[in-house]
Amino acid sequence: MTTSTTTKLTRSRHDRMLGGVCAGLAHRFGWKPRTMRLAFVASCLLPGPQFVLYLALWIVIPADDR
């Protein structure tokens, strides 16, 4: 029997640097927030719409109620 624990995707209010998107994604996927932030900064070195995606997630993902 397999049990899985799912967490709701929310923006963090406690461990945020800008909008809480990276901290919320890190909490959802079981990563450390610092690791997620470093991955985001590293991805910004590649061409693509990273900043637009971050802003869209900031608008779409609800804030944490805690």
From TrEMBL:
The chain positions of domain Phage shock protein PspC N-terminal read 8-63
Q: What is this protein called?
A: Phage shock protein C
Q: Where are the transmembrane segments?
A: 38-61
Key word Transmembrane helix present? yes
Annotated compartments: Cell membrane
List the keywords (alphabetical). Answer: Cell membrane, Membrane, Transmembrane, Transmembrane helix
Chief localization: membrane
Question: How is it placed in the membrane, per its record?
Answer: Single-pass membrane protein
Read off the InterPro entries from this record.
Phageshock_PspC_N, PspC
